[in-house]
Specification:
single chain, mainly alpha, MetI-like fold, 2 domains, transmembrane
Length: 326
């Protein structure tokens, strides 16, 4: 009897120890979750505070522009007349870059993820990633010394053939340092962003979706259209908007390529400038009212970028419920 009681007591003690250990582990896990949750919340608050601080600083430093007489602003016609050509130039360069880079990036990503064998896909992916590591000043120097002279004859032909279209009106620049060249350079710079993100999204397409489409008799192209692209729609939009943000804020590459001047609607003539390039070229020697002008132009770029991101989030939220991931 004593042996049986001791065994029973021993079993109860083991259960109590196991229960206490489980309770301690659970308490430790809850504490870890609380710590991690607090750190995550703190990181989010820090980002929000930094964004608000940047906006407040730009607004404070740009405020003197309101009191500057119109005749004292660069150009002599007021701040709006000074900044709107820069805003249009920024948007023109970014749109050209997106129009060139988006289809190429998506097609390259599809080739890597669904067509190329592994021996080819990996080297191509590495090369695409390496493009993102090249400094922007290198792109700018290459665009100024190599790409611009190479494109000049093509611009002459384009102006002679399609000069009736205002965007291609002549005379074309003899140096090739035009808004079109800047857009091409930006397209090459944002191509790795679009390609890399789209490639990762395409790879994550559920295998069952692809196999079901192929089993119903679809070709590989039809399978991509029916299964891959609907699944990746929101991701593609996110990649494009991220690349647009890079294109809007690019500085040195555009500053080196463009032959700055007044607003030109033709993409083949010299002139035009962007906000980022204007700030980079003039900020080191700016002071007083000129410094306030440049910071106010930076505030305009900040607002444009914020609006672009809000539009992107709205588009993503609108189409997310129709994504193939749901």
């Amino acid at each position: 009897m004593s042996t049986n009681l001791s065994d029973t007591e021993r079993g109860q003690d083991d259960k109590q120890q196991t229960s206490s250990l489980a309770s301690a582990a659970s308490a430790g896990g809850r504490a870890g979750d609380k710590i991690f949750s607090g750190l995550s919340l703190g990181a989010g608050i820090v980002i929000f505070v930094m964004l608000a601080a940047v906006a407040a600083f730009l607004t404070w430093q740009a405020a003197p522009v309101v009191g500057i007489p119109a005749s004292s602003v660069t150009g002599g016609n007021g701040f709006f007349s000074y900044v709107y050509p820069l805003v249009l130039g920024t948007l023109m360069a970014a749109v050209i870059a997106l129009l060139i880079a988006t289809p190429i990036g998506i097609l390259v990503a599809l080739y890597i993820s669904h067509y190329a064998p592994a021996k080819v896909a990996k080297p191509v992916g590495y090369v695409i990633d390496l493009l993102a590591a090249i400094p922007s000043v290198v792109y700018g120097a290459w665009g100024m010394t190599v790409l611009s002279p190479a494109l000049a004859p093509f611009y002459n032909w384009l102006s002679e053939t399609f000069g009736f279209i205002p965007l291609f009106a002549g005379p074309a620049s003899a140096t090739g340092r035009t808004m079109m060249t800047a857009g091409v350079v930006l397209a090459i710079m944002i191509l790795p962003i679009i390609t890399s993100l789209c490639r990762e999204i395409f790879i994550q397409t559920p295998q069952l979706h692809e196999e079901a489409s192929l089993a119903l008799g679809a070709t590989r192209l039809e399978m991509i259209r029916q299964a891959v692209l609907p699944f990746a729609r929101t991701g593609i939009i996110s990649a494009i908007m991220l690349a647009l943000g890079r294109a809007l804020g690019e500085t040195m590459a555009v500053a080196l390529v463009l032959s700055t001047g007044g607003l030109q609607w033709s993409l083949l003539t010299s002139g035009n400038n962007t906000i980022a390039a204007e700030i980079a070229l003039n900020y080191p020697e700016a002071f007083g009212n000129r410094l306030a002008e440049l910071i106010a132009a930076g505030l305009m770029l900040f607002i444009i970028t914020l609006i672009v991101n809000l539009i992107a989030r709205t588009i993503i939220a609108r189409y997310q419920e129709f994504s193939g991931a749901n």
